[in-house]
Every structure is written in structure tokens, then in C-alpha cells.
């Protein structure tokens, strides 16, 4: 969010809608718009404006991987040459079992700079997916960090009904 931009009452209503459960219907934005008494076109226009104004950064889904059957997941960290980062990251992000893909700065004692979250039905399957990605991109240096315990699966709530 920007320091100088004011957030209108309508924008707060829209943000409340977007940070809640997303309706799984044919026209979800129409349904959301109806909840606050505006048209779907007005809702989409306000979302686009808030993104341009940097009031919101993205609208995304939270994958509850266990609820959809994935019993294993691993943060796979990769050592990608800086000149290849965009190409490799775009390729890995396209894989259907990769839910997150982002770059990080290297440190003196940690040379990995690309992180992918891989979901599978077993650790072996996660390893197979990583091996496929390695073969497709030519990036061999990686480590698999498996989830031991899931602590949080909720998003930040920026506005409540009281605000």
C-alpha cells in the first residue's frame, strides 16, 4: 500500500470481499459485486485502479494442498546463474505442481537463489518433479526441504467489518 493514497469506503468493502472466500461459481466477480451493491464492471474497474495505484498488489489463491490430496510438499531451492533467472523461473512456474516460484538473494553461506514449492502425493513424486525440472532447465544444483509441520494457512486481513 502507498503512504499517500487514501482508501475509500468502497475500496475497503472491495478489499474485505477479496480477502474472504472466493465464490466458486461461473461469474464470481458478479456475485461479489452484488454483495456490495455495485456492478461487476465497476468492481473490476476498482480492482484494476487499486492495482495501478499500488493499493493492492495481487489477488491470489491459497492452496490447501492436503485438502486436495497432496500429502507431500517440498521447498526446492536451486542455484540458478543470474543471467538465466528469468527464463528458468518462468519455466518452473509453469509446472502444474509448482505453486510458488520466487528468487532470493544469495548469502555467503547459502548459494541458492530460486525457490519453488513442489506438491506431490509422495516424497518420491516431489523428487521426480524436481528431477524433471532440472533436466528441462539444465539446473542440477538443488536441495529439497520438506515440510514437517504446517503452521499457518490463512491470509492477512487488512480491514474488518468494524473499519
Automatic annotation (TrEMBL):
Molecular function via GO: lyase activity
Originating organism: Selenomonas artemidis F0399
Reactions this protein catalyses: siroheme + 2 H(+) = 12,18-didecarboxysiroheme + 2 CO2
Pathway(s) served: Porphyrin-containing compound metabolism
EC number: 4.1.1.111
Siroheme decarboxylase NirL-like HTH domain segment(s): 11-57
Siroheme decarboxylase AsnC-like ligand binding domain mapped to chain residues: 68-152
Name of the protein this chain belongs to: siroheme decarboxylase
Keyword check for Lyase: yes
Stored InterPro entries: AsnC_trans_reg2, HTH-Siroheme_Decarb, NirdL-like_HTH
Family according to the record: Belongs to the Ahb/Nir family.
One Pfam family matching this protein: NirdL-like_HTH
Keyword field: Lyase
